[in-house]
Description:
Low-confidence stretches: none
Distance between the termini: 38 Å
Number of helices: 15
Number of strands: 17
Structural class: alpha/beta
Amino acid sequence: MPSSPYLTAMRPAYGTGTLADVMPTALAALGIPSRGVNLRSAELHGVRRIAVLLLDGFGFHLLGQAAQASDTVGAMHHGELGTLTPITATVPSSTPISLASLACGLPPGEHGIIGFTVRVPDTGDLVTHIRWDGAPDPETWQPEPTCFEQADAQGVVCTVVSNGTFRDTGLTRAIYRGADWLPAIAPHEVAEGVLAALARGDRSLVYAYLPDVDTAGHFHGIGSPEWLEAVAKVSEAIDGILTGLPRDAALMVTADHGMVNVTDRLHVDRRPDLTHGVEAVAGDGRMRYLYAAPGAVEDVRQAWTAAVGERAEVIGRDEAIDRGWYGPKVTESSRERIGDLVVACRGTFAIVGVEGEPPHVARLVGHHGGLTAAEMAVPLWSYRNG
């Protein structure tokens, strides 16, 4: 993984181009007024069918390496096919936050899915959004209209093409309301599903998801043979969609975050002193939320600051909000879900060994969730047929 400048901090580009603007751009092209920035107004003018393919972990600064495994990705990266621009993820740069930002067309401060794991204010329980079993109630936890609900209300046929095991999860109920579900797992199945869904109705909006690159990066690292194989695999979905893309349709490809190969870890389970005054540790390895016992915030801040040193920054909830990490507006319910303290990792450092997390998480090579350009910058690539 390259060092600087990809490991320097990058601010989320709210108001100019984040994942929260991708679906509003698609809605605008389909004639539906929507919140957010229109990122492709001229290029998508007049299309009646749009597919948005999200490749998990396919960060913008990884495209050069990814091009080694796919001629299509190489053509995208070098400007020989379609239109490629960098946008940013929202914060934290992790899957559930990014998917919610994309599907709802809102920054995390408004949709409220504001961490990989957060504490439920009313109960003190932890909810891990990616493994959400339905409690708390998804429609209450994330009450804002999704982009699919907005499109459906205007007569656009909406479809999600993804693994069927995700269909009834809490995250799906929170962010994909308004769309039908078409199960597909393998890249060729996803491509076939996207093309079938694009043919539905007079106007159609399709969202598809593939996790392969992210999974390979977590377990084997960016640039590994397994990672390159995953890139080649998911590029088959792009090729398949382009081959059958209708004349009045467009394809948009983006990612939820990038990734860094971690070289330095703090194991919380080996540091019992770091749990003094801490009621819960949440978030993920690159951005942790600390929920302190009453009156213990400053003691916790000092202990964790000493433990992480220059490898991370420990700041209060209000400061994180004031820095604009979660968007220009943060609702009171969203604010309550953020930890009393936020630990933002720098460089290639991660905080692991947290109670309640699967043991394998501490051994993962690739991580994300932080504020480096490697994690925050994501591609927005589009191709219009006709």
